Amino acid sequence: MAELPSGYKDIPEEERKKAKVFYDRARTVADTGNYEYAIEMYLQGLRIDPDSIEAHQALREVSLRRKAMGGKPMSMKDKWAITKPAKDDHRQAMLNAEKQLAYDPGNDDHMLAVVTNAQKGGYYDTVIWMGDRLFQALMELPEKKRDAAKFQALKEVYVSIQDFRRAIEALKLAARTKPGDMDLQTELTQLSTRNTIKEGNYEAGDFRQSMRNPNEQRDLLIADMDIRSLDAMAKPIADAEAAFAEDPTDPARFAKLIDLLQKTETLEYENRAIELLEQKFRDTKAYKYKQVIGKIQIAQMARTERTLREQLNANPGDANLKKELTQFLRDRAEQELAFFRETAANYPTDSSAKFDMAKRLFILGRFDEAIPVFQVVRGDPKYKAQSGIFLGRSFLEAQFPDEAVDTLAGAIQEYPIKGDEKSIELHYWFARALEEKGDRQAAIKSYSQVAQWNFTYRDVQQRIKRLRALNNPNNPPPGNTGTSGGTGSTSPAPQEQASAPGAGIV
Question: For 202-350, where are the alpha helices, taking DSSP H only?
């Protein structure tokens, strides 16, 4: 058995059960809007079970909801009142940082403090969970504002827990700020070597997983390759088929076989998976099996779309290909709408299915139907910003410019980060709504903010020039980018509809 990284602390099951009492109470009070009390309850539970990813995630969701409702960071007085940890009390230091982060969820200094103290305390699941969020938060900053020292600190933490893949990614970002630093390049080479020869500890994101022997490791790595060879996949699939045939009632064997068949990304194997899933659904009536069928079919349609686009790129003047792609995109959106509608009906609390359903309604131009769904999903912190964008755009398409302006203005106020991709998108569509409403000066101001963040974003340069020219009758406006007083259609063109998962709206 391979050894776990030195210093890892496993939390006994009885401790997790004790902590669950606090987590249950936290969820209850959070639902009443008492976010500060919910934060305290989650922290009380994490004091007992400090490596519970579910609790860390739930606490972060509460903090984002609190932020969206106008919650402020902790005052200096409140910070001084926090219990000071003993010298080697890394658990308390982590919780202190996480409390401050809960009151200021965009603060990357607090994120880094959580990560470093979690590593010192031996809470490695938490290191990976919060480390990924810190990495993403740093990446969302303009490149000139990224702190190389934070990427370096992340790298050191990842090296200490032998997660060389993440260490390499963090060090790459640090090296980009110092392209001539040969020491960093040498360290990158060394880390790559250590990652290659690393034995055991198959990356699953959960250090409670048992270590496997080298042969089992190899099978797992083959089964999880990003670029898969069917020859390499054939043996694991045959072994999984044989194991499943021995005991078709074993859910683990069934799940492993389905997963391997899906990963081939070929019709023959995927259809075998669909056949097995359909039989399982008939036997059990459990919708989860039908849901997997739908996901496989969505992946198949995505591949078909890529093929059509490649053909059109090679023959851009082919009118028949353009027509075929446009019709396919509509058919795909219809099929995906039916799937996500069914999923939402079977899992009423699944916000992701509702969000995907609303996006397909948007693609299909059914804005009156999309609006109430986006309004519901906007209550989930995970989809709040993106739902706000699509809700504003839906109002705009449905010829409700006042409602579009108010919706997007509110979404901008609630979104805590400035200058990242979502923030830019919010300001752009806010400007489009203002333009449609006829408020040129306010539209110019919002477009200008977009240009200052990303000068090449969409058609923002042309729109600013055109509106400024319209405000100055002595200068004729440049070529149209919409109607003379508004935006024209905001619906995505067919060629835009494949860049995100599913039908993918830009």
Answer: 214-223, 230-246, 251-263, 267-284, 287-314, 319-346
Same domain flag for 484 and 387: yes
SS3 435: helix
CATH number at residue 122: 1.25.40
User: Which DSSP state fits 110?
Assistant: H
Distance CA 446, CA 440 (A): 10
- Asked if 381 and 468 sit in the same domain, the reply is yes
Q: Residue 448's domain spans which residues?
A: 366-490
Chain centre to alpha carbon of residue 200: 29
The answer to whether the beta carbons of residues 164 and 194 sit under 8 Å apart is yes
* Under 8 Å between Cβ of 149 and 171: no
- Give the whole-angstrom CA distance, residue 138 versus residue 134: 6
Residues 247 and 253 sit within 8 Å (Cβ to Cβ): yes
**131 and 17 in one domain?**
yes
* Residue 334 resides in a domain: no
* Among candidate residues 105, 140, 175, the one where a domain is terminated: 140
| Those residues with Cβ within 8 angstroms of residue 326's Cβ, 6 or more apart along the chain or in another chain | 494
- Residue ending a domain, among 234, 252, 285, is 285
For residue 42, what are its two tokens? 């989650």
For residue 177, being part of any structural domain is answered with: no
Q: Are residue 29 and residue 133 in the same domain, yes or no?
A: yes
Phi, psi of 354 (to 5 degrees): -65, -40
Residue 425 to residue 415: CA distance in whole angstroms: 12
Token pair belonging to 478 = 């440049």
CA distance 155 to 133: 14
Specify whether the backbone of 205 is left (phi greater than 0), alpha (psi in -120 to 50) or beta. Answer: left
Q: Where are the beta strands (DSSP E) in 340-419?
A: none
How many independent structural domains does the chain possess? 3
User: By CB neighbour count within 10 A (0-12 exposed, 13-18 middle, 19+ buried), where does 67 fall?
Assistant: buried
| pLDDT tens by residue, the chain, 506 residues | 345 566 777 788 888 899 999 999 999 988 888 889 999 999 999 999 999 999 999 999 999 888 888 888 888 888 888 878 888 899 999 999 999 999 999 899 999 999 999 999 999 999 999 998 998 888 877 777 888 889 889 999 998 888 888 888 888 888 876 666 677 778 878 887 777 766 444 444 444 443 334 454 445 444 444 434 555 667 788 888 898 999 988 888 999 899 889 888 888 888 899 999 999 999 999 999 999 999 999 999 998 898 899 889 988 899 988 999 999 999 999 999 999 999 999 999 889 999 999 999 999 999 999 999 999 999 988 899 999 999 999 999 999 999 999 999 999 999 888 888 899 999 999 999 999 999 999 999 999 999 999 999 999 999 999 999 998 766 655 554 443 344 444 444 333 333 333 333 33
Are 130 and 227 part of one and the same domain?
no
CATH number at 472 reads 1.25.40.10
- The answer to whether residue 458 is domain-embedded is yes
Q: Is residue 82 part of a domain?
A: yes
